[in-house]
Amino acid sequence: MWKTTVTTRMLTCISLACLLLGCNKELPLPSPQVSIDPMLQPYVNRFVADAASVGRTIDITNLIVQFAPDLGSDSLGETVGDCMVQYYEGNVYGTPTILIDRPFFEGTDEWSRHTVMYHEMGHCVLFRVHRFDWLSIYGPDLVEHSIAASIMWPYVIASADAQMFENYYISEMFQ
After folding, report:
1. pLDDT 10s digits, 124-147
2. Does residue 19 fall inside a structural domain?
3. CATH number for the domain harbouring residue 154
4. Which residues lie closer than 8 Å to 149 by C-beta, 6 or more apart?
């Protein structure tokens, strides 16, 4: 009983001290910044332009986009892009940061680069989460295709699908 009372009193005193001394104050927000690697800037520009083409205005005012030497692997496989966003009390805190795996970027085709950048910007700019669903859709070749329903699919979308269904993917991204 005595230990419980002493412990309860100590916790009450510590909690009261924190409240009185300011432990509960809000964190100051860091200044927004924009820093985009020149090789990745065209993808950011195209993202903004594609959003505008379907009526969505996007202003990039707080974003870092840079290369990483090697992002390694996780439970989904090789990581070729990563978006890091810090949250504090449900709000974005700090600057969202996109890392793109340099070996992947240098060794792949343009459509794969495009979809990986759009995927990561979907996370860091639009704050979208992964989608795991598929869609059956007829292509311009009048053949039914089964494709990832979103660029937010957690794997790199096949270049042929990204190219053939570009208009669908842009519309879905910015809906």
Report:
1. 999 999 999 999 988 888 889 899
2. no
3. 3.40.390
4. 131, 133, 134, 135, 172
